[in-house]
């Protein structure tokens, strides 16, 4: 079965082989979970959800923080596994883990504040009521993850769903199965007294993910490509299962005339190529003011000339994790060069086996694939523009709306506010992803809903509104056939007073 095969049926006794993308070495094989196994995992989670959901916020916090401590205790082993299975350098693996730990702590520590019952003002006409807004866990959340940040990215759903009182069934990407199972195993090791199934994994390709969507979960939280997100939403529609979709991006950076050019070039060089460019909110496009374009392009080129991929300790970034992505990167480079683009660093010759060296393409036509589609490789397009208005217009002219960045000493915040995206970093790239209290997510092809922050907790809970009639007001039985003419007469006097005085 191929990685992209999403056929409904799963071959009996099929296995999934995890391979080191840098060397081709086989790391492990895993049995693939078929439809029955997926349903069994959801049923187990449903039983565990009753126990986990009934705990207090403080108890869940204790269990989540124990999980963090176990991840820290096993961080060397986990980072080695991330390096081997995903290909990224060990330091990048540690940074990814560190950011995930920050989110686990934030979700565990803030769940009570965000989700605790709140009293709501009932309003003048319902003054004899008390009103309560209570957030309940959804039950079982099915989480389908990608491979590019195999710990950090799905954790944005896993930690927040758990903190909100849900059990989780997690299908890691077929390219990060070992890592996903390691993380779940750490939760179980840290919390042996909890029932099996609070956080469990299922393994397989797209067909296993598709089975999870159909398995009666209470929400599907998906991170991956827009194409898969659309299939998941269509399938989930059959049962009106709600979906959270964290999909791809085509993030733009605006470099204004008053930008700190060295800082902007440093950020663009890193944001475009770190993690081999396999970052959903990585830098893919740059719009730079013509007054500073030459200086900026020269500086990005200077930095990236010394940046090399590899799998040794000195490598700046690793191989392409998913071999099929290499063809997409090649197609985008070729298309950009055919459509007016000039390669100022690298070109198709930068693709060397599973490694791709940095590629900078200047002034490619805005209709070329390298500008319109997600490339997900260590390449960047840079376009010279006539001022901020043109930069904003071109940045917004995308089917994606995930992240973005602005470099300007004086007007960064104002420019940021004009961008149609879920998040913007001013005078930095990707800063928003490291601030746990800030929600993360996009619009259009970048998806639906938010992970992280208070909205990320609310995504995994269900509001329950409760109205309690504390006493009756004689003659004011509004919601009853015993309502009298005098009640209506009174209301006709009260309503203009309440709502009719604004000129
Ligand atoms: P993908 O869509 O190929 O796969 C993602 C997951 O979906 C995998 O686990 C896969 O097995 C599963 N899947 C595939 N077909 C399925 C189906 N029909 N039903 C259910 N599940 C199915 O994406 P990928 O290549 O793993 O990840 C890269 C993409 O993820 C990029 O587009 C990237 O931008 C995006 N991404 C987004 C974010 C974000 O937070 N917005 C974060 C990381 C990655």
TrEMBL record:
The keyword Lyase does not apply. Keywords: Oxidoreductase. The keyword Oxidoreductase applies. InterPro entries: Ald_DH/histidinol_DH, Ald_DH_C, Ald_DH_CS_GLU, Ald_DH_N, Aldehyde_DH_dom, Aldehyde_DH_NAD(P). Residues 14-464 form the Aldehyde dehydrogenase domain. The active site is at 246, 280. Pfam families: Aldedh. GO terms for biological process: aldehyde metabolic process. GO terms for molecular function: oxidoreductase activity, acting on the aldehyde or oxo group of donors, NAD or NADP as acceptor. Belongs to the aldehyde dehydrogenase family. This is Aldehyde dehydrogenase. It comes from Nocardia huaxiensis.
């Amino acid at each position: 079965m191929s990685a992209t095969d999403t056929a409904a049926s799963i071959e009996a006794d099929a296995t999934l082989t995890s391979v080191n993308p840098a060397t081709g070495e086989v790391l492990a094989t895993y049995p693939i979970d078929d439809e029955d196994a997926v349903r069994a995992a959801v049923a187990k989670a449903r039983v565990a959800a009753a126990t986990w959901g009934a705990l207090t916020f403080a108890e869940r916090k204790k269990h989540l923080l124990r999980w963090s401590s176990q991840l820290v205790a096993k961080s060397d082993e986990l980072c080695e596994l991330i390096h081997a299975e995903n290909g990224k350098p060990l330091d990048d693996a540690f940074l990814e883990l560190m950011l995930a730990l920050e989110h686990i702590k934030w979700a565990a520590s803030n769940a009570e504040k965000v989700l605790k019952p709140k009293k709501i003002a009932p309003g003048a006409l319902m003054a004899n009521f008390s009103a309560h807004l209570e957030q309940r866990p959804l039950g079982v959340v099915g989480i389908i993850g990608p491979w590019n940040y195999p710990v950090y990215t799905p954790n944005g759903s896993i930690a927040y769903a758990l903190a909100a009182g849900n059990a989780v069934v997690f299908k890691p990407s077929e390219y990060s199965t070992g890592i996903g199972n390691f993380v779940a195993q750490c939760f179980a090791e840290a919390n042996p007294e909890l029932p099996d199934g609070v956080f469990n994994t299922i393994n397989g390709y797209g067909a296993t993910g598709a089975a999870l969507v159909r398995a009666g979960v209470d929400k599907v939280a998906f991170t991956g490509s827009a194409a898969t997100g659309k299939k998941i939403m269509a399938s989930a529609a059959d049962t009106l299962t709600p979906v959270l979709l964290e999909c791809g991006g085509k993030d733009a950076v605006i470099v204004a005339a008053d930008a700190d050019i060295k800082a902007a070039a440093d950020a663009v060089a890193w944001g475009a190529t770190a993690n081999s460019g396999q970052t959903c909110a990585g830098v893919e496009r740059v719009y730079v003011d013509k007054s500073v374009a030459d200086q900026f392009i020269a500086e990005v080129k200077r930095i990236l000339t010394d940046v090399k991929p590899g799998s040794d300790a000195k490598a700046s970034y690793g191989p392409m994790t998913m071999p099929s992505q290499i063809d997409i990167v090649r197609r985008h480079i070729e298309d950009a060069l055919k459509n007016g683009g000039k390669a100022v660093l690298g070109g198709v010759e930068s693709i060397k086996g599973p490694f791709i060296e940095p590629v900078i393409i200047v002034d490619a036509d805005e209709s070329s694939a390298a500008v319109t589609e997600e490339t997900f490789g260590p390449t960047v397009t840079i376009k010279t523009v006539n001022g901020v208005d043109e930069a904003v217009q071109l940045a917004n002219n995308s089917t994606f709306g995930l992240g973005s960045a602005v470099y300007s000493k004086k007007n960064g915040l104002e420019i940021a506010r004009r961008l149609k995206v879920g998040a913007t970093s001013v005078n930095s790239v990707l800063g928003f992803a490291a601030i746990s209290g800030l929600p993360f997510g996009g619009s259009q092809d970048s998806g639906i809903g938010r992970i992280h922050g208070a909205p990320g907790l609310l995504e995994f809970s269900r509001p329950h509104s409760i109205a309690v009639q504390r006493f009756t007001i004689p003659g004011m039985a509004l919601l009853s056939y015993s309502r009298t003419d005098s009640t209506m007469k009174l209301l006709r006097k009260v309503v203009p007073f309440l709502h009719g005085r604004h000129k």
